[in-house]
Amino acid sequence: MSDLKNYLFTSESVSEGHPDKVSDRISDMVVDNYLAKDPFSRVACETLTTTNKVVLAGEVRGPEIKEDYIIEKVRECIKDIGYDQKGFTWKNETKIESHLHSQSSDIAIGVDSSGNKDEGAGDQGIMFGYACDETDFFMPAPIHYSHKILRLMAEDRKSGILKNIEPDSKSQVTFEYIDGKPKNVKSIVISSQHSADINQSKVRDLLRPYILKSIPKNFLQDFNEDEFYVNPTGNFVIGGPDGDCGLTGRKIIVDTYGGAAPHGGGAFSGKDPTKVDRSAAYAARYIAKNIVASKLSNKCLIQLSYAIGVSKPLSVYVNLFDDDLDKNKFVIEKINENFDLSPRGIREMLKLNKPIYQKTAAYGHFGRLPEDDGSFSWEKTDKKDVFSK
Fold first, then answer.
1. Which residues make Cβ contacts (< 8 Å) with residue 125, sequence separation at least 6?
2. Dihedral of alpha carbons 132, 20, 89, 57, sign
């Protein structure tokens, strides 16, 4: 895609009520509850959601947390998302099973620090970070506005402003790029679960305003109403985990850059920050965003790679998309001088050993605002001066 100047590009998002996102939320709730009791807890939690059933499985190391407590917290997640339907509800009709067990001692030996050995990565793998100047949030326009449509819908649904719309929704936005920059929205798709009391025409009327609320007018000047698709297959009354089984980690492109940049393959949700699948992807985004914020480059891609039990990254790759080798060398030098990319270094730099992860489970891990409790610390641009020549 980097060689093209004029093209169409599409990204999708899914709401917090999408079955996979319900699973992500529950898995991150488990992470948060362990970190709240012990910042050095280890958690790898997977969640399955289906018709009136939730199943948790995975490995933990940390304080004892009773199963009944976790199950009650699962119900709180489901209630907050907004599910109280015949096929999926926060109430007792939905059965919840927890199969969390102790972390493998073999993994613990490889990851823990001891003697002269620094803490190692929790797994091998590659992680990517990306940033661009297409939006004020340094995110690609298609994924940014796909998220925003669903986030605003969810806020109004929960407040009671948006009625007859249920939690499970998806959006998709296609942009026309001219000379490599987003210029016009070409098509928009919104599929949303709704009550049986309204027809598709009413659903369309309810959802249309969220386009104007979400997308700047300059991108909509040439938008054709015929390219606005709402529930293209018709009724969408049965949805959420009752309509489709949900699993943790099945929406990784939604979580990152909407396909505009590579993804390393590892999911984020359900993993404590010793897992570099999560923490190193956050660090790579942090570096890339600060590079673009410094105006050194219009976009930046970072790749990091790790081996299980090894503390330092095996490689650091930088692409500034301008073929300027001297600038690229300068950036790599500044990264090596100013960023400790060991697992411990990343956690300390971004203050990741906090219960801050439920908020990441929907509407993207990137392109968010840093919060006072430490959430989205990787979105700060406090290192941009490092890259100023």
1. 264, 265, 266, 276, 277, 305, 306
2. negative
**Would you give the distance in Å from CA 116 to the centre of its chain?**
35
Tell me the torsion sign for CA atoms 263, 312, 321, 146: positive
The number of beta carbons lying within 10 Å of the beta carbon of residue 326 is: 7
Identify the three-state secondary structure at position 76: helix
| % of residues, the chain, pLDDT over 70 | 95
Q: What are phi and psi of 184, to 5 degrees?
A: -145, 145
Q: Helices 67-81 and 19-37 sit at what angle, rounded to 10 degrees?
A: 130
Q: How many whole angstroms separate alpha carbon 138 and alpha carbon 296?
A: 13
pLDDT at 4: 78
* Cβ neighbour number for residue 296 with a 10 Å cutoff: 20
Model confidence at 319: pLDDT above 80: yes
| Identity at 274, one-letter amino acid code | T
- 118 vs 318, which has greater pLDDT? 318
For 116-128, how does the pLDDT look when each residue is reduced to its tens digit (9 = 90+)?
445 767 678 999 9
CA–CA separation, 15 vs 327, rounded Å? 39
Sign of CA pseudo-dihedral 289, 295, 301, 303: negative
CA distance 378 to 34: 21
Task: Kindly give the residue spans of alpha helices, DSSP state H, lying in the chain.
Answer: 19-37, 67-81, 105-111, 141-159, 200-207, 209-214, 240-243, 252-255, 276-293, 325-338, 343-350
DSSP 59: E
Q: Give the Cα separation of 174 and 227 in Å (integer).
A: 10
Q: Which position has the token pair 């280890």?
A: 42
Residue whose entry in the numeric block shows the structure tokens 């326009």: 141
Which positions ≥6 away from 355 have C-beta within 8 Å? 31, 32, 33, 35, 36
